[in-house]
């Protein structure tokens, strides 16, 4: 679809969150269709996880985003979907790859939302595809267990923070979950949540560096818990790490289903977003270093540095591999 | 209401689809109100058909669109509504007629959506009005049968197409039907569908001519089949004909109600949109000729030429008639 | 959240209606949460009244609006919420107070929408806070009775009106109430109604003075009657008074629940909006005087003048009080 002014920031770059929302919609459609392709109980595919996603080039207002999705692996109860986004300037005809994302969905019964149904198996062209898919499936399963332990954290407001400290840029946003945010099952679309997360992360990044910023990547996101219609969600973000030209922001989503459940507020999602700052010519600008004050903040900074170096090493390995082929 | 940046393209011209959506909303309101004006089963009026609509002058961001609707004929089970749109520049006070559209609605029971209710008859000021209305009613009924036969076509993607061929500009878009797209009955508003159709047709036109384009007219649209909440709709468009300064694009809407019905994918709507390309001063620009390759494409081009010449002849006849009066 | 192009007029100033909608959402969240904080029947807080609200400084596209809400008083069946809005330019870090609003909510049972539940009492830090709250509660109760009497008025269109007369700028807008406009109870959010009212008032103001206008204040608004999903609402506005640099516009909201009730059209809300016209540098411009023609119009002009002088006197008294402290 054509990118509109509301999809973009004041510099005309489309928000990463808008792209993530489109990706998730495409993934939900293809996996719901697949899971309903055999006779049986009707179901809706719910987003369980998004793998790390890199934004390779910014999309601008007036460009057309082409989204294509393909099912690449099925386990007994989950579907892996690969979604590619290409941006196309329809006036010049120029096309660029914007994103490649991998998403995991599970089919939930339309009649009983707590029942996970079985996924019809797909046919693989080559036997290795199935093996590689199984490997990815096992890896993400492990990773999902790990992130569950980060769930306790809460962000408190800080009075009169110094510039470039964590407290200076941290931000939060509340949103009342309405009908247009939800699937047929009455739960928030994963894409809606990711769009709000990107909005908060973008505010944190802009507050820190005071220049035009764009989403560079999103770390794997696990959707631990569903969020019901009528809930209030609080999305909070804080900066955890800065390199010379990038900022890492941790975002939490807390849901409060106060109207219709005895259940209290709970952590529904958390993720790391990486932003870069761009000059008017689209070149990355240096960003001010994050000032860490507490022991906690220093620890998180070091962890962020670890993730940053790991990603950098992985990318270099890929480049070398590509050069050798 | 005031036209917003999101209603318009990058050149500031409001999308024809936004206007069509407003027209349909006005028509749905007046006909639903009329059909509920007598005691009896409550109902919602559903769009059955839109007659050919010309866009007489483009509307810009910041202008106010004034929509007025009037019931002009009632048959036993359908209502004809005439909707006029005027754009007003509230700063200069200048007003222009933008559209005159004729829509047909049928009242569906709120309790049983498959039951078409009876329409309370309206009073005509002059007897001729009733006769002319009946004539229009019979004509559209005939036309509706004809278009049903065009329903089988499907659009396949083409690899590496040449510029200005049909395959080069053809486009499609998928959309998951959410609650805000639907009426009280849980079916997609006709206006929502038309807005998406215009979006796809606009992308096809821009890909073909690479310049700023606006909707010039829409041929009669028949809404053969309702589309249910939760369905996925695929909207596909391909160019069928070009004159020196206009492009005709055929648009199909296919619905896939995969979640809640045993029923497969079906063709819900199809229509022809005509676009022109405008210079910065608002003058029509020449458009590149469409290159037809297959026999099918050549046949469709000739059919499009037929529609183009017929419309041109009709318009000249009207101008002569107006000059003689 | 970040202000987007669609939230603003062509000059980049965010619509007062967008701010009012955010204020109401924050108020609805905090009061619904409070009313559900004790075990008992689940409920949704519905907006009953908004006190007079001044827009202290315009907000621009790209700025972040920070909304904070606090419960300041509870009666047996109602909650008073104080909402503050600050706009923040995230690039410069500059912050400005935009709004301070006071809203009243009543908790309606989720099971039976006509049942008003009891509100859990809040704890006051100082005894005077409770007494002052009770005084505000009694005052607004009185005022609500008064405005009920203004309910009969209807606005008729006028053919060929003279510039600067009441008929020249009067405007109306219809809107079909969809699912995304409604709360869990299926009634329109007060914030949605206020946004539409501001849209109509803004059109009236722009038609009158033909320059860039912004909302300066909104008089107390009473929500007499709920509006159900599927209703059609007609929002009408007419100018009642002009001072040298401000315009007062009266706005009515009439609801027509034609589909599902035997009940006819009724007046749901009415309010006075005050607009000023701004130059490109943000300075208030003189506005053309309103030409009153009928006795009714002259009477309304004098009443408007009364409200204007009263507000002016109150503001001067506050300034003097502040100067003395």
Automatic annotation (TrEMBL), chains A, B, C:
<dbReference type="GO" id="GO:0052816">
    <property type="term" value="F:long-chain fatty acyl-CoA hydrolase activity"/>
</dbReference>
<dbReference type="InterPro" id="IPR033120">
    <property type="entry name" value="HOTDOG_ACOT"/>
</dbReference>
<dbReference type="InterPro" id="IPR006683">
    <property type="entry name" value="Thioestr_dom"/>
</dbReference>
<keyword id="KW-0378">Hydrolase</keyword>
<protein>
    <recommendedName>
        <fullName>palmitoyl-CoA hydrolase</fullName>
        <ecNumber>3.1.2.2</ecNumber>
    </recommendedName>
</protein>
<dbReference type="GO" id="GO:0009062">
    <property type="term" value="P:fatty acid catabolic process"/>
</dbReference>
<feature type="compositionally biased region" description="Basic and acidic residues">
    <location>
        <begin position="296"/>
        <end position="306"/>
    </location>
</feature>
<dbReference type="InterPro" id="IPR029069">
    <property type="entry name" value="HotDog_dom_sf"/>
</dbReference>
<feature type="compositionally biased region" description="Low complexity">
    <location>
        <begin position="316"/>
        <end position="325"/>
    </location>
</feature>
<feature type="active site">
    <location>
        <position position="9"/>
    </location>
</feature>
<feature type="domain" description="HotDog ACOT-type">
    <location>
        <begin position="167"/>
        <end position="281"/>
    </location>
</feature>
<keyword id="KW-0963">Cytoplasm</keyword>
<feature type="active site">
    <location>
        <position position="198"/>
    </location>
</feature>
<keyword id="KW-0443">Lipid metabolism</keyword>
<dbReference type="GO" id="GO:0052689">
    <property type="term" value="F:carboxylic ester hydrolase activity"/>
</dbReference>
<feature type="region of interest" description="Disordered">
    <location>
        <begin position="292"/>
        <end position="325"/>
    </location>
</feature>
<dbReference type="GO" id="GO:0006637">
    <property type="term" value="P:acyl-CoA metabolic process"/>
</dbReference>
<keyword id="KW-0677">Repeat</keyword>
<dbReference type="GO" id="GO:0005829">
    <property type="term" value="C:cytosol"/>
</dbReference>
<dbReference type="InterPro" id="IPR040170">
    <property type="entry name" value="Cytosol_ACT"/>
</dbReference>
<dbReference type="Pfam" id="PF03061">
    <property type="entry name" value="4HBT"/>
</dbReference>
<keyword id="KW-0719">Serine esterase</keyword>
<feature type="domain" description="HotDog ACOT-type">
    <location>
        <begin position="1"/>
        <end position="111"/>
    </location>
</feature>
